[in-house]
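hey so u asked for the seq, here:
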Amino acid sequence: MRIVAAEWLAAHPEHPHRPELRLDAVGVVIDAQGRLVALDQLEAIG
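ran it, structure tokens below
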């Protein structure tokens, strides 16, 4: 995940540089009818 984040930040130099970076992730599960089944947030995964 850190590699993906680093590549994204390198490709978007308009975002300000920060000496430290915290990575969070959000998982979303939706059923066949489009209803939310689960929502989970993981903080500081990197």
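Residues 22-46 form one domain. The chain has one helix and two strands.
lmk if thats what u needed
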